[in-house]
Amino acid sequence: MVIHSCKLSEGILNQYATRLIGEEICFKVHYWGVNPGHFNNILHKHSFFEVCYVLSGEGLYHDQGGQFQLKKGSVFISRPNIQHQILSESGLFLLFVAFEVIPDISKDDAIRKFDKLSTTNKILINSADDTPTALIWRALVEYTSIGGANECGFISNLANTLVLSFHSMFSEEKPRTEHHEKLFSNRSSHLYQAKLFIRDNLSDQLRLEHVANNLHISTRHLSRLFSEELGESFSNYIRRKRIEEAAKLLETTNIPIKEIADLTGCGSVHSFTRMFTSMMNVSPAKYRNTYEIKQEKQEIIM
Predict the structure, then answer these.
(1) What would the pLDDT profile of 197-236 be if each residue is shown by its tens digit?
(2) Residue 271: CB partners within 8 Å, gap ≥ 6?
(3) Share of the chain above pLDDT 70, in %
(4) CA Rg, the chain, in Å?
(5) Is the pLDDT of residue 237 over 50?
(6) How large is the angle between the packed helices 284-301 and 269-280, nearest 10 degrees?
(7) Residue 26 near residue 106, CB atoms below 8 Å
(8) What SS3 class is residue 235?
(9) Of 187, 182, 238, whose CA–CA distance to 210 is shortest?
(10) Of the candidates 126, 125, 154, 124, the residue with the CA atom closest to the CA atom of residue 140
(11) Which candidate, 150, 183, 160, places its Cα nearest to that of 18?
(12) What is the DSSP letter of 230?
């Protein structure tokens, strides 16, 4: 990441990303900065947060009596009203941003989350180049250094995402376990994929084992997903979706009933009629006729 690109980015960010408005929390950015040759500064403090990202070099960070080794890939936070100091004999290439929460337009829970960072003991993250925070920061610099000024909204949103990520990076709150994250993610993803597969293949015979095999999960697991997450069995869900699609076709097209039975995977006209009547309390033909009458009446009124 060359100095020229970082300097271009600094100018754009200080023009377009100083007031970051999110759904839960909003930030005032006092400044975005880049210093390709930061050596020593005096012991000092701010009334706001400042987060620094070391692109190259080595040094030391002093914070309220603690001393932290800085090197390429380090990301560290200066907390409000805490005296701190950066020292380097060879020079550090730093990106940094100073910000604070705008309380008047932020939600209380979100404010409390960032307030806790004021007392965090998690000051420094080493080897952070592959963390979400560092990846977002580099993407933001790259985008704003190649003429992204025309996309002010995107720049502001990406900058807001970066500042939000500082909470996850430096918070001492215990994160959800990897097992919990994986379980939650897989359950949601598998169910969503199953529903998509069913929707796109209604005309086929959709057996539990076929859908499970497509998702590379067991039939037992798939069956449990439907019963626990949707409150209905796999087979009932498919029947309902077949009839919902059939009703839509009866309402919006003149496709023959036999063809609708084929398109929705309901089998023969007899099977389709029995299934449709059981669920809708009216036969497919009467349903279409009733809908056509309603449409004609609406046209007459109009």
Answers:
(1) 999 999 999 999 999 998 889 999 999 999 988 899 999 9
(2) 261
(3) 90
(4) 29
(5) yes
(6) 60
(7) yes
(8) helix
(9) 238
(10) 154
(11) 160
(12) I
- The C-alpha atoms of residue 7 and residue 164 are separated, in whole angstroms, by 23
- Res. 297: pLDDT tops 90: no
Q: How far is CA 49 from the centre of its chain?
A: 25
Tokens of 222: 């798939």
Q: Rounded to an integer, what distance in angstroms lies between the CA atom of residue 302 and that of residue 298? A: 6
Choose among 227, 234, 231: nearest CA to 211. Answer: 234
Domains of the chain: 3-170 (2.60.120.10), 181-301 (1.10.10.60)
Q: Give residue-wise pLDDT tens across range 5-60.
A: 999 999 999 999 999 999 899 999 999 999 999 999 999 999 999 999 999 999 99
Structure tokens at 165: 């990520």
Find the largest Cα–Cα distance for the chain: 87
Distance CA 228, CA 9 (A): 49
CA distances from 258 to 198, 261, 269 (A): 21, 5, 5
- Which neighbouring-strand residues pair with 51? 77, 97
Coil, helix or strand at residue 21: strand
Under 8 Å between Cβ of 220 and 212: no
CB-hemisphere CA count at 13 Å for 24? 10
**Residues 6+ away with beta carbon under 8 Å from 302:** none
What residue has token string 């309402």? 251
Residues 121-180 have pLDDT tens digits of 999 999 999 999 999 999 999 999 886 656 788 999 999 999 999 999 999 876 555 444
Q: What is the dihedral of CA 102, 103, 108, 114, to 10 degrees?
A: 50
CB 50 within 8 A of CB 163: no
